[in-house]
Specification:
globular; 19 helices; alpha+beta; Alpha-Beta Plaits; homotetramer
Chain lengths: 402, 402, 402, 402
C-alpha cells in the first residue's frame, strides 16, 4: 500500500505504512476535513480555508523528513519508534472541535489536548494496542525524550508546518520560514534535540515569523472580533435551548447545547465523545444560518452579522481602565435603545497576549562546532534577547458599531 | 473607501469603487464564501477547499489588470464600461449553488447561468439600475463586443483565474499558466479581443494546461465517483422526503427536497430564489451527517461512505457496450444480496468529455506583426491543430466495490 | 564529509560521498562556474546567467531523488551503481566549452560529447579507475540499461533539471514542469525505465514544456542572432590571427585561434585538452572587449554590436528560396557601401529545427495498471500523437539592419 | 516604443519611456550585464550570479509601482518628476566596478557613489540636460524630499529590490520580504515618506530579513574570505606591474594596475572614467586565469586558489586581541617555510559590522490612523527596539590553512 497525496505546500506526501494508512482512513481522522485549521480567519484572508486534516498530513510529512535526516546523521531510531512518532504527530490535534477557541469557551468546556489523548486512547483500544508507543511519545513518557520534542516543543514540526501552511494559504509572506533548512540542521545530543550552529539565523527567522503571524493573522482585530461574536452566539443559543425554546441544530450540536458536560462526563459517558466526534464546522454554520431567522432578536441579529461579515469593531487600549471604555459603552447602550441587559452580547473587554519565545517551555538549544550547547537566548548577537522574552499583552474591547 | 485583500495567488486585490464594494458586501455575494469552487475535488486534493468568493475576487482582479493594459495601449474604455465589465466578472458565477454539478442534476433543475442572470437582475433592482451596463455586457448585448469576450470566451479572465487558482490550491503544477504574459499580450482590433503574435506560446500553454487540468483534476476518477455518489444520495433523500418520511434538513434544503421546482417556478415564485440564496455547502454536508444515521439503509450507507471517503470505483471503458459491464453488474447484485432494485444507487454508466479548444465558441485570434489576424488553429506549427479540436470522450462506469 | 548547497530551484543539494566531493572540487568541474548554461540567452532574459556547474549539481540532485525512489520500490541498485550513475550525470556536460554552440562551429571543431568522455577518462586516470563504472554507464556499456536511461534518454534527469532551471532563471513559466511527480512515477520493468500510468499527464506536460521552451527561449530570434554574431566574430578573429595580425587573447583562447585542431589532435596532443580546460566565458568576453577597439573594421564593429546589444535582425521565412532574400541582400550591400565581400559577416541564411518527441531515440514508455507497457505515442487520447513527431523546421535569415 | 522584459523576481518589467529606453541601451548601462551584483557570493550560493543590470531594472520596476501607488493616493507627482525619479533609481549604482568592494580597496581608490554621480553627469551632458532633474533627486537637491527618499533611505526601493532579488537567486528564504505589501502601505505626509500603521509588521519583517541576509549571506565567512583573497591578488599584481614585471591584463585593467589614480585624477583625466567604464568582471577573471601561471609564486598560488575555490579560512574572534591569533600566525609562518614576509598575503585581521536599523540616517516613519507619525523605534511593542540599534561588530581573522 503506497499512497501519494498532492500538497501545494510540501509537494508530495507519501504514506507507506499500513497502520498510518488505516488511521488516515478512520472516520475520526477524515472528520478533520470538515474543520478549518484557522477557524474564522478566512473572514480576513479568503484563502485561509485549509483544514485540520491538511495540517495533520503536512506535519506528518515534516516528521518523516526530520526522521530521515536524523537517521542519516546516525541517530538511532528504530522502525517502531519512527512509526510511533509519526502517529503521535498525525494525531496531535485530533481532539480539535469546530472553531475550537469559541467552542471551548461556550458549549464544550474541555480542552482539545485532553480530547486528543482521549481519542488516541480509544483508537488504541480499537487497534489493539498498536498506538501505545505513539501515546507514550505524545505524553512524554517514552524513554527517548527527543521524540517528544519533535512532536511538542518550541521547535516541533507542528509549528514548522502550521507557519508554512498558514502563510501559504493566507498569502502573508511575513510567515514564510526556511523549514527545509531548519530540518537539515537538527540533530540529537544526549537525548536532546539541538540545532547546529549554522542554522541559527533560520531559527531566528522562524521565531520572528511566528511572532509576526500572531499579530498580523492569528490575533488580527477582525479575527478576534468574529471569534467573540461566535462566543456570544453560542452562549445565546444555549441559553434559549436550556430555557426550552426551539433552537434548530443537528443532533450532535443539540447534544452540547442542551447540557453542560464536564471532562468528567466525557470520561464516564461515551455519548459525549461520540457526539463530539460527529460535530464539525458544518453543524455550526448550518445552524447559524437557520438562527438568523430565529425569533429571538439577539440570536438572529448576531448570526446574520457574522454570516454577512458585518462584524463588531475591535479597539486596542493602553490598559484595562482606559477612559474611552465608558464612552463607548454609553454609545452602545444608546444604540441598543437603552437596554443595558443587551450589553453582555454587544460588548466584550479582554486581553490578548503572545510570547516570541518562552523561557519556561521545551527550549531551543544551539550546538556549536566546539561541541558546546547553549540555549538560544544565551547566544550572543542574536535577535532573541531578553527583551523578546516578555510576552506582549494587548488590552482590547470588542463592540457593536455601525 | 479602499480595501486591500491578501490573495496568495495574485498578491493583493484592491477594491476602490464604492458600488463594487457594496456588491462584495452583499449577503448574496458573501454566501459564495460557503461554496467550494471545486466541490468534492478536495477528496483527492486536500488543498482544494478554496471558495467561489475567492475565485470571483481573483477574476475581478485579472479583469482590472486586463483593462489597465488595454487602456495603456490606447483602447477606449470609459469609467462606466470599466465598472460594468468588472461587475460582470465579479458576479458571473453568483448563480452557483452548493456542489452545483450534483445539485443541478437532482434537486434544483435550473442551470447556474440562468440563476446568475436572475440574481444580477434582482441586485440591479435593489441598486436602482446601477448594474444595467454590467448585465448588458454579461449577456452580450452591449455594443463593445470585446468587453463580453473578456468575461466569457475561450480566453476570458474567468478561465485565467480558475486555472491559476485551482493549480495553486491543488498543487498540480500541470495547470500553472503564464496569465501575466497573456494579459500583457492582449489587445483589441475592430472590437475583437486578439493576442499579439509574441504571446502565441503562452496561449498554447494555456490551452494545454486546461486540457491537462481536466483529465488530471476536474475529471479525476475519484472526483467523478464522489459527485455521482452525491447525486444518488440527494435523489434518495428526495424520494424519501416526497414519500413523507422524516428527512433531516435545514429549512432551505428542505424546500428543494420537498418539491421539484422548474425555471418557471423560479421566475414566478420568489421563495425559490430566496431559499436558493440561503443554501450552501453547509446545508448539504450537515444533512449528510445526520442522514448517515437514517433508518433507510441506502441513504445511511451512501452518506457514510461519502463522508468517510469510502468511495465507489470508476473504470474507464473503450465504449458503452464493453463486455466487462455485465460481469461487474452481476458482482454488485451479488454483493447487494441479489436485490437488483438497489442497482440504481450502486451503479452508474456515463460518458465524460472535454475539448482542448472548441471550433464553435468565441475563438482565440492571433494578431501578427504584419497586421494579419488568424484564428489560432489556422496558425502554422502550433500545437492546436485539427487533431486537438475533436473532443475526447471517455465512457465509464462507477460502482460499489469493496 | 557532508556538504549542503543552497539551490533556489530544488531547495538543498546534499553531497555525502567523498569521491563525488572530490570531483566537485576538481578544477575541471569548478571551471563550469565560469560557463553560462544558456550562453547568450541573457541578452533576452536577464536572469539567465546561471552556470553549467549549477545545472550539473541540480541534475545530480534529481538523480539522487530518482535513485531513492527506485530503491524504495524495490529496484536493486547497489551502492557502487548509485555512485556510478550519480558521477555519470554530474560529469555529463563537463566537455562544454564557453558558448559551445558558437565555439564548436568556429575555433574548436570537436563536439562536447566527445570532450566530456575524454575528460572523464582523464579524471578516471587521475583517480585510479574509480570512475570506470560511471563511464560504462555514460557510454551505455553497463549491463543495467536503465541506469544509462536516467543519464541520457528522452526522459533523463538532465532534461528534468535544465527545463526546471532554465524556466526558473528566465522567468518563463511556460517551461515549469512537475519533475517531482515525474520522479515519483518512475519505475523499472525488464531493465527499462518506465513511467506509471498515473504520470502520463505529467509526461505530456513535460514534452510540451520542452517544446515551448525551444521556441520561446532556446531558439528565440535574439538568441539565434547573437549566437550567429559570435560565430562571425570568432571566424574573423581567427582569420586575422592566422594572417599574422595582432589579436588580443588570453593564451588559452590564442591557442585555438592560432590553429585549427581536429579531434585527432585532441587525442594525440595533450596541450589541446589542457588549453580547452583553461578556457571559459571570461576568455571570450574579455577578448571581445578589446577587439571592439581593433583596427579591423569588421572585428571591431561586430564586437561592439554584440557587447552593446545592437544585434542583427532575424526573420523567419516560409522556405529557403523566399523572394524577400534577394531584396534584403541588396539593401545590406547598399548599407555596406557596395562592398559585397562583407556580406559573409553581415548576412546568414540558415534553418533551425526542433522535435517535441523523437521516434528514434530512447523512447518514453508508460506502464499500465494491467502490466502492459506502451510507448507514449501509442497511448490513446494523448497529446503526443503522430503529428507532433514531425520536427518543426524554420528557415531564417539573420542580417545587419539599422 | 514599449519593451517588456521577463524578470523571474517581479514578473514583467515594462519600459515605455523613450529616454529611459535610451539609457538602458547605452553602453555604460549595458556594461552592468557584465558585473555580478553579489561579487564572489556565488562561491557559496551558486545561483547568485545575477547582474547589476538586472538589479537596476528591478529597482526601476519597484519605483514604477511605488509611484503608481502614491499617485492613486492623490500625491502630486508630475510626469517629469516620475521620469526623474525612475532615472535616478535606474542609474543609482552605475558607478559600480567589478567586485567593487575588493576593487575600491586596491586599484581604484574612488567610491562607487562618487562615480555614479560622475557618470550620470557625463550622460546628462550627452543627453543635453535631460537628466538634470534625476540628478537633483539623486543628490537630494530637489524640492520634493520624498522622491529622494524613494531612491535612498532606510526604506528605499533599492533595498526592497536587492533583498528580494538576492533571496531569490541564492535560495535563502530568510531574506524573503513582503515588498508588495510595503509598497501598498507607502504614503507621503508633509513631503516625508511614511508607512501606514497596517504595514508595521511588514517593515519589521523587512528590517529583520535584511539583518539575517547580512549575517547569512553578505558577510558569510566564505564570502569574506574570497573577497580578501581577491584584495591580496590585486595588490600583488599591482606591485609586480609597478616593479616592471610583465603582468597579463586587458588594456583597461592594465590602466589601473599601472598607476594609482585618485578621485582628482578622475575629474581631470578623461581616460580614467573611460577605462573604468570599459572594465568589468571579465577583465578581472580572465587575468586571474593567466596569473595562475605567473612565475611569481604568490600571485600564481593565490589566483589558483581563488579560481579553484580552495579558500582561506575565516574565524570570528571575541576581540581584536584574542589569544589564538598568535598561535595561528606561527602556524602559517611555519607552513610558509618560515618566510614571514609572506604573511601579509596569507593572513588578515579585520572587523565586520552591520546595523539592523540606523538611528542617524533617513529614518522609517509610521503613520497612525490618528494622524500621528512616529519613528519606528518609538512605536511600542515592535521588534526594532533600542537593543537592535547598536551595530553588531565581529572581529575576525582570515588565513591560509590546509
Amino acid at each position: 500500500m503506497r499512497k501519494i497525496i498532492n500538497d501545494p505546500v510540501h509537494g508530495f506526501i507519501t504514506i507507506e505504512d499500513d497502520l498510518i494508512f488505516e488511521l488516515v482512513s478512520h472516520p475520526a481522522f477524515q472528520r478533520l476535513r470538515r474543520i478549518k485549521q484557522m477557524a474564522l480567519a478566512f473572514l480576513v484572508y479568503p484563502g485561509a480555508v485549509h483544514t485540520r486534516l491538511h495540517h495533520a498530513l503536512g506535519a506528518y510529512h515534516l516528521m518523516h523528513r526530520a526522521i530521515e535526516e536524523l537517521k542519516q546523521k546516525g541517530i538511532a531510531i528504530s522502525a517502531e519508534e519512527e512509526q510511533g512518532v509519526k502517529i503521535a504527530i498525525l494525531l496531535h490535534d485530533i481532539g480539535h472541535g469546530p472553531f475550537s477557541h469559541a467552542l471551548e469557551h461556550t458549549i464544550v468546556d474541555v480542552n482539545h489536548e485532553q480530547l486528543s489523548l482521549m481519542i488516541m486512547e480509544q483508537l488504541n483500544h480499537e487497534m489493539k494496542g498498536r498506538l501505545s508507543l505513539a501515546i507514550a511519545i505524545f505524553t512524554n513518557q517514552y524513554s527517548k525524550h527527543f521524540l517528544h520534542q519533535l512532536v511538542s516543543s518550541q521547535l516541533d514540526v507542528d509549528r514548522l508546518d502550521y507557519l508554512a501552511r498558514d502563510s501559504f494559504f493566507t498569502g502573508v509572506s511575513e510567515g514564510v520560514i526556511g523549514y527545509d533548512r531548519i530540518i537539515k540542521m537538527l540533530t540529537v545530543i544526549n537525548d536532546e534535540l539541538v540545532v547546529e550552529e549554522k542554522g541559527i539565523h533560520s531559527i531566528e527567522k522562524f521565531l520572528i515569523a511566528r511572532r509576526l503571524m500572531y499579530w498580523q493573522v492569528y490575533l488580527h482585530k477582525t479575527v478576534l472580533s468574529s471569534e467573540l461574536m461566535l462566543v456570544h452566539i453560542l452562549k445565546r443559543a444555549k441559553e434559549l435551548r436550556i430555557q426550552g425554546q426551539p433552537v434548530f441544530a443537528t443532533p450532535f450540536l443539540d447534544f452540547f447545547l442542551s447540557n453542560p458536560f464536564s471532562f468528567e462526563d466525557f470520561k464516564t459517558n461515551p455519548a459525549c465523545l461520540q457526539n463530539f466526534l460527529a460535530m464539525d464546522d458544518y453543524d455550526m454554520v448550518a445552524s447559524l444560518k437557520v438562527w438568523r431567522l430565529h425569533e429571538d432578536p439577539i440570536l438572529s441579529d448576531l448570526s446574520g452579522r457574522l454570516l454577512d461579515r458585518r462584524l463588531f469593531k475591535v479597539k486596542f487600549l493602553t490598559d484595562s481602565n482606559a477612559p474611552e471604555i465608558a464612552d463607548i459603552k454609553s454609545k452602545i447602550i444608546y444604540e441598543l435603545n437603552g437596554d443595558d441587559s443587551l450589553l453582555a452580547y454587544y460588548f466584550t473587554q479582554d486581553v490578548t497576549s503572545n510570547s516570541t519565545y518562552s523561557a519556561g517551555d521545551e527550549k531551543i538549544k544551539i550546538l556549536f562546532k566546539t561541541g558546546e550547547i547553549k540555549e538560544i537566548t544565551k547566544v550572543e548577537n542574536t535577535l532573541i534577547s531578553e527583551g523578546l522574552l516578555v510576552p506582549i499583552k494587548k488590552h482590547y474591547i470588542c463592540y457593536f458599531a455601525h
